[in-house]
Fold each of these.
Amino acid sequence: MSASRHTVSYTVLNRHEALHYPPEFEVHATPEELEAFAATGYLIRERLFQGEALTRLQDALDRLEAAEWDRHRRNPPKDRSWGIILRHLMDKDPVFLELLKFPPVLSVCRAMMGPLLRLRGLSARISFPGAERQETNWHQHMRVISNPLPPWFSQPHCIDALIYLDDLDDDTGPIGIVPGSHAWLDRHPDHQVFASIEGEQVIRVPAGSTVMVHGNLWHRGMPTLGKKRRMLILSYTPTWLRKSPHGGSPPPDGLTQQVLEDCDEETKELLGIGGYS
């Protein structure tokens, strides 16, 4: 076993036998890395995808971009945009479906949020240089916080693996994060702000790297100035959270529906069928 991994064992205290999860699994991180992830809200894995593995993801996303370009860019904005956002990737290409049980991501999600998980979604954001300024404001991916907090408030947790298929640098547009902000339950970012704020840390990583973030970590994408930037967003939540409402319904004949016709119980849970008491 690699020194950068350790084993975790879970027992879910439940009288029902319908829950299916790995009672013991290898986590692709050290206990110290998980502690830092919990405190800061982010974990970086440089060059997680290399060689053919990276090329296959790049090619698959390029095919999907070409197929959906006209629909997403028919009326491009004149000043500022998020570029192109593509949804339901696992339903559209088998290359993306291979990420459903990708151990370096899934094992960390299970170690941080428990064994009963579901896929929240796999989407992509593609930004490119041009007349319009392509960047994102300060935001969070899943913000459902009551103010004031009720006595039995349950904080929603989500892990988003931001998989960068191109170098993340000043040409493609690095990302800014505020470490620890995922734990702030008394405030939210001003969605009109695009500039740097106090506490910001700028992240630049090579192509194939993954930045795992808590869904409520404050972050922003800086402008894409010189070269195209392709990013996948692979997200997981506990099974009992509803699936993401963004992007509408998946295609009725999507690949995940075909997988559900003949798969194991763990796959059903990850695709949102099961995992409840």
Amino acid sequence: MRAHLKNPIMWKWTAIVAAAGLVLVLVMDMLVMPAYTRHGQGVTVPDVTKLSLEDAGRSLEAIGLRYEVYDQRPNENVPPDHVIDQTPAGGSVVKPNRKIYLMVSAESRPTVRVPDLVTQSLDNARIQLQTRGLAVGRITYESSPFRNAVLRQSIAADAAVRRGVAVDLVIGDGVGQRRVAMPMLVGLRITDAQLRLRDAGLRVGNISYQSSDRMAPNHVLSFDPIVGDSTFEGTTINLVIAETPGLREEIETGVVLEGERRDSIPPRYR
């Protein structure tokens, strides 16, 4: 090796090759590699959360970025097809043509199964609905010996519904365990008929009017259902009242009518 180095020609070529290699390394380091990696270049990622997917895509593409939807999830605070989250986050500096991953809100809410509430107490029914993310809807009461028990529900048990849906309940009021005498109503003034029904433990249902020349105005012309001499406590009786056009007597206040709130029912019949 020393013999070769002592040769001036060989030494000269060795020096040239070494110099050329050094130049090549410098060119790669200072020019080629920075150009390849876009050294010194960066794009600030915009915050596209809460934008529609279409608007978010346009914003990203306008500055040379790509995007991809990697997940869809329901979100009550964000409209469907809007961006919930992004990676990298807004404000990050990335290389041009970088792909931004987006999470988008789904169009439908998750579904839950409606519990079987019939025969459950009202309090237990409330708990079961709330536990499953459902709401208690309209509560109405109906004559039944099963006080505060669910008699019917507006949505069938095991039905798949969206979270937040309200379920209406029909609740028993504890009335109807015994039979009571049916009062005579035909020919009574409307207010007297209402009081008779109330005192017997019965309910006044629909009140309709009909012209009649055989009964004095504002008196009971007929009623239904026809129940005979006795019926179950809490039965609803509908009244047909005779009228002269333009003359109607006011219905007595405080008497329970069909569809009224339960807190208007006298304590004796709750």
Amino acid sequence: MIEPRTNSPLEFVKIDQPMERVVRITLDRPGANAANTQVLKELHLAFDAVHDASDIDAVLLTGAGKVFCSGNDIHEFAQMDSEYAAELMYRVRRAFWALHDCPVPVVARVNGVAFGTGLALASLSDVVIASDRAVFGLTELDVGVLGGLKFARRLVPEHAVRRMFFTAETYSAEQFKQFGAAITVVPHDSLDEECERILRTIVGKGSVALRMAKQCMNAVEHLDFRTGYEYEQTFTIRMSDRPESKTAVRKVIDDIEARKRAKANK
């Protein structure tokens, strides 16, 4: 089990290990899992702890109860002035970057409402599995703040983002998918089964390959086409000397040969 770098127990973020080599990070704050300063600090600590764990190959990120994350705590917004806002935005960024920089793939299990910060957390994950009860939205203008645009653009096209932001309307998971979001929507009762299936597929690829792939993906995301591909090739070169690489390609070759023999024996 991973251990956050803190002397105090986490209050609103729970960490457990539902599967071998998989850690689950759960937002669990009464009041719709709203992200206040403490939640953001604990998220940062939780994902930092994943950095320190060599025996973890994937993370499942979710919310307790019927909500993924309803956004930032509006009571903190009500108390904000420019000085306090700067501190809060710093806390938000630290939590977001800790998730983005997680060294292993993150699967978001979106079990309900994902507004504002909740949508951002989903967008920063590598795979998004959403219940058909999930609801997405950028409701910032309704509470007098800005933010979330860069994260929403990771999921849906520009004009969908503008519509979401200017109207502050909310959308079902299916509607969000119709906007172009690359998410998987499943019946609510199948959510855990689908998340487990995806996680088992991911961790089966091997620790070294997963960590190198995540590092490579994060690095090339904002590079130009030629520079990005050239950088990506350096990871192929690095992987070529790894025993895991030879084992993986040998398995594929053995499978091909087995199918050929089975076909020839028919």
Amino acid sequence: MIKYYTIPKVWFSVLLYFAIIELIIIFTKPSLFLDWNFVSTRIIFILIFIFSMVIKSKISNIFFQLLQNILVFALMTLLYKETATLNTLIFPKIDEFLSNLDQNIFNFQPSIEFSKTYNSLFFSELFYFGYFCYYLLPLVVFGILYKFLPQKIEEFGFVLISSFLFYYFIFILIPAEGPQFYFTFPDNHIEAKGIFGNAIKLIQKNGEAPTAAFPSSHVGISWIVIFWLYQNFRKSVKYSLPFVILLMFSTVYIKAHYFVDVVAGFLTAPIIFFLTFKFYKFLNQKLDVHLN
């Protein structure tokens, strides 16, 4: 029998998220419980959890923490896709409001005009690379921690994954699909001109969905990583910060987000970082009582 205080902390966050989502489904669209996409996602999470608990005693604790956090991090894409269905269950999408805000601020649409103005191969690859950094940054941090600060892998993984789940919940409550889905062709289209452009297009083709525009989790998660690094591995911040700043511009350039999404992502990042870190400390205190 698995005792709850032996379960890796990140799974408490996952369990809480699932509990909230199931409650939303019960009161809005119970038929989703029979939808194979939803059922299969939960089966995959259960299998990964069982796998984690089986191998826990067979490998070192440090490698276990690294492996299970990367596995759960990889599964976030499944929960992201779910929000495309869930974000229409409670409130209507607010893209018209967000695009109007951008229009009122600039007297034009940044997500349309940015890529039109800077449409050379150099700028295309620069900003697509900036967007690509979003996928690389957490993995790079995991690698750095494994080598230099292994005792912090659990904490970083918990904050990172809990932050994703927090943003996914927000996306369900504040539905927006973003310029690439809201605008019509050719305003929602941008040509990929190089290696990183085509790589992002491939990722979007297989993993993108009309959801998760407001606030920008790309911006929010990246800043949360910066905040965590500032507290725990400060010398790496100066190397990471330029890529995060580039990412902020990139999200608008490739039409993933409105300008106001980027601002909201930046403003929500410290709040979500504080809440997820406090939740981690709370779990530490509660579980330590039983372990000691």
